[in-house]
Amino acid sequence: MNKPVILAALLGLGTLGLAACGETQEQPAAEAPEGIAGMTISNARLVLPAVAGNPAAVYFDLAYDGERAVALNRVHVEGAESAEFHEYAEWNGQMQMQPMLPLPLKKGDRHSFEPGGKHVMAMKLAPEVAEGGSAEVTITVSGGDKHSFPAEVRAAGSER
Fold this sequence. Notes:
The chain is mainly beta.
């Protein structure tokens, strides 16, 4: 047998193999579940600043019952140019607000993000973020998984 005939036969067999693959039905890609398994957010609220242009604060309660240890890494607030996790700590004999280091979470952990403690600062809010509305807050943990939740927008001076 000469080479062109062998190559043509191999090419034909390869095409049949590919055609057989095309007969199987395509399965839709499995979608990842919404949020982070085991993470629950409650009592979420964004309190507008008393002075326009100042940062707003986001408070909430977090419960984590996931099987895998994670750490809060980043946060995004819809309608804010930027957002950061903050906390209060003593520095040079005084309590001061500072960026929060990544917060490790393990099964059973509970954290309150509240005035005078851990919280989210949302900088340069868009005018659309107004009292009575809501803003979506997205937490990113180590590894890149995300968990989003709505925060009720409250006026400055209202109950935090």
